[in-house]
Write a structure and sequence with these properties.
single chain, Rossmann fold, eight-stranded mixed sheet, two-stranded antiparallel sheet, 6 helices
Amino acid sequence: MEIRASTVLPARREPIELHTADGLTLVGELALPPERPPVATLVCLHPLPTHGGMMDSHVYKKAANRLPALADLAVLRFNTRGTSSERGASEGAFDGGEGERFDVAAALEYAEFHDLPSVWLVGWSFGTELVLKWGHDPLVRAAILLSPPLHRATDADLDAWAAFGRPLTALVPEFDDYLRPEEARTRFARVPQAEVVGVDGAKHLWVGEPYVRIVLDEIVRRVNPAAHPLPTEVADS
């Protein structure tokens, strides 16, 4: 059976709640491999909620639908403050990336409390700003950025990540609306341990199954190399 945009592979999926230090309850989902413990964990930070970003933004939903089964990864998705999706609405209101520091901390606290292994932050667009500004936690092994605009995240935030020392990979679409590969390489040169990967033909929202596959493949290449490359077909059950 070919893996398509709508494919949902087996996983142990459970609704979760995150509790922030400033008193909010956030809604999310944890997807675990169907039969084995995970080898690593993706904590996903979604695009801008004021422009439709949420935990179900398509790349993250497809990651949760595929990567537990194909790559033995745990995928933790959640709605940041004031964000709604099919799972429900998180309390609070959008705070432009500032109050969201507590949301990032709550997700990492959940991962630590539940003994989720080898935690990687994955940010997409606005989510990349949250990674760079608030992801400096000892629990974090590394981070992957999808379509980083480097708008709210400044050179000072890049310098802070450089000092943090954890690996950083930026997947930058050739035709991104905000930051394209050549400029991204210049900006991320401040972070010695950063790798910028330009993706030919891609746009900011990674629309189209070929680009989703590239994103998921590049994530798995780094997080669980033993599962790379991801298959494009699975046994029909």
